[in-house]
Amino acid sequence: MYRFLLLCATAALAFAQPAPTHGKRVHRLLIHNAIVVDGNGTPASGPKDILIQDNVIADVIPLDPVALSRGGGRATVQADAVIDATGHYVLPGLIDAHAHLQEERGGKPQPIEYELDIWLACGITAVRDVGSDTKRALELRRLSAAGEIAAPRIFVYPMFGRPKTPAEARARVQSLKQQGADGIKILGIDRDTMQAMEEEAHQLGLRIAHHAGVEETNAWDDIKFGTTSIEHWYGIPDAAIPDRVQHFPSTYNYNNETDRFRWAGHLWREADPKRLGEVLDGMVKANVAWVPTLDIYEASRDLQRAQNQPWFADYLHPVLAEYFRPNPANHGSYFLGWSSTDETYWKENYRLWMAALRDFDRKGGLIGMGDDAGFIYQMYGFGLIRSMELHQEAGFHPIRIIQQATGNNARILGQEDKLGRVRAGFAADLIVVDGNPLEDLKVLYPTGTEGIRDGKQVHTGGVEWTIKDGIPYHGPTLLAKVKEMVAQARARR
C-alpha cells in the first residue's frame, strides 16, 4: 500500500513529462497504460506501465484499472519522457529471422536507409541477415549497435559458398568466426562438406541456417548434423519422397527459374505423409527449427495480388520495382508464362505446406518467422507482417504468431535471455501499436487499416513507436521519410 501511495504521489509529475523525441534515447522512458502481449505465448494483460532505463526494461508494473477509470493512477514513476499507450498494445520488437541487407537490386543502387527505415516503421527491431556483403553487413551491425544509424539489431550470417573439400569447409568456418560472424548461411552444399562445416561451426559456437535446394542434402542431413534452422521448405518434403527424387520432366533444368519454381509447386503432394511425419519427428528431436517464410512464394499462387499490393503506390522504390518485373537475369523474377495451372498447383502446395507446419508445431517443433524480402514482389518489413497473416491462415492463433515472430525467433538466434519478451532485465526492444493485433494483424502494417471505433469509420493501426535498444523511433515519421525517398527516386527516373 505504501508503494502504491508513493507512486500515485509522483504520478502528476511523471505524466507531465514530454513525449519522446524521435531517434533520441533518454535515461528514463515510461510507456504508460499499455495492454501487453508478451513473446512467450501468454494472453494479453494490462494495463501496465513499462519503465525503460537507458537500453533495458527496468520494470513492468501492473496498474489498477479501477483507479485509472476514476482518473487516478495515471503513471507510476518519474521519467524523462512518457509515451501514453492508452488504447494501445505493446509487443516485443518483431524479429525478422530471414532478411537480406540490400544496397542494390539488379546492379542498380538502392539506398540502405530505405530498407532500414521500413524495417523500423514495421516494428522490426532485429534482423538475421542471411547472405549479403559480409564486410558491409558487419559494419552496419557495428553502426546499429553504437546507435549511429537508425536500424534494427543486425545478426550476420554470411553465405558459406561451395568449398571443394571438408578441409576447405573447416577453414571457411574459421575465417567467418575470425571476421565476427554470428552464424552461417548454407545453400547448395554437398554432404561431406556440410558435415565438416557443421562440426567446426558447433565447436566455434556459430549457428547455421540452411536454405536447402534441390541438392544432395536434405532435412535428414540437418537432423544428423545439427543445423539450427531450415529456411523456406525445400529439403523437408524432399526427404519424404519414396523414390528420393521428385518426378521431374526430362526437360527440367534447375537453373531455369521458371522450371524450378513451376515444379516446386508440385513438391509437397509427392511427399509420403507417413515419411513426412518421421522427418518432422526427427527435426523436433534434433532441435532443428523451421523458418518457413510463407510470404515469399505467395506470388506463385496469386500473381495478380502480389503485383498490386496497396503500399506499392507510395513506398515501392523504383529500383526494387524494376527488379521485380519478370526477367531471367534477376533471381526470383521468374513469372514468364506463369499460368492459372501453375497457380492452382501452388494453392495446393500451400495447403499441404501449412498442414505440415501445424503438424510440426503440434509435435513440439520450433517455428520462427522471416520474409526474405527484396525478391518476388515482397517489400522489406511489409513481407514479415504478411507472413504473420499467412501463419494465421495456416491455423495458428495470433498469440502464437506473435510468439513465433518474437520469442521463437530470439531462441533461433540464441538470444532468448535478452530479446523477444516484455520483461524486466531484457533489452528495450518494444513496439507500441495503435490497435489490437490479436483481433486484426493488419494493424501492424505501418500504413494502418480501416476500422470501426466508437461506431465510426476510422483509419487505425500502424506501429506508433518502435523502441530499439531504448531508442524511440516514431513510426509515421519513418514512413513519411520513406515516402519522400521514393518520390524523389521516381522523379529522378
Write up what this structure looks like:
It is a single chain. The protein is α/β, with parallel strands linked by helices. It folds into 2 domains: 2-92 and 421-492, Urease, subunit C, domain 1 (Roll), CATH 2.30.40.10; 94-413, TIM Barrel (Alpha-Beta Barrel). It is 38% helix and 19% strand. The strands form 5 sheets. Strands 1, 2, 3, 4, 5, 15, 18 and 19 form an 8-stranded mixed β-sheet that branches. The chain has a 4-stranded parallel β-sheet with strand order 11-12-13-14. It has a 3-stranded parallel β-sheet with strand order 6-9-10, with helices on both faces. Helix 5 (134-145) links the parallel strand 9 and strand 10. Helix 6 packs parallel to helix 7 (191-204) and helix 8 packs parallel to helix 11. The protein is globular and about 70 Å long. It starts with a helix and ends with a helix. Mean pLDDT is 94; it is low at 1-14.
What's the topology here?
Elements: H1 2-9, H2 11-15, E1 28-36, E2 45-53, E3 56-62, H3 65-69, E4 81-84, E5 89-92, E6 94-99, E7 104-105, E8 108-109, H4 112-121, E9 124-130, H5 134-145, E10 153-157, H6 166-179, E11 183-187, H7 191-204, E12 207-211, H8 219-225, E13 229-231, H9 257-264, H10 267-270, H11 273-285, E14 289-291, H12 303-307, H13 312-315, H14 318-324, H15 340-362, H16 382-393, H17 398-413, E15 430-433, E16 449-453, E17 456-460, E18 463-468, E19 471-474, H18 475-492
Parallel strand pairs: 1-4, 1-5, 6-9, 9-10, 11-12, 12-13, 13-14
Antiparallel strand pairs: 1-2, 2-3, 5-15, 7-8, 15-18, 16-17, 18-19
Helix pairs in contact: 4-18, 6-7, 8-11
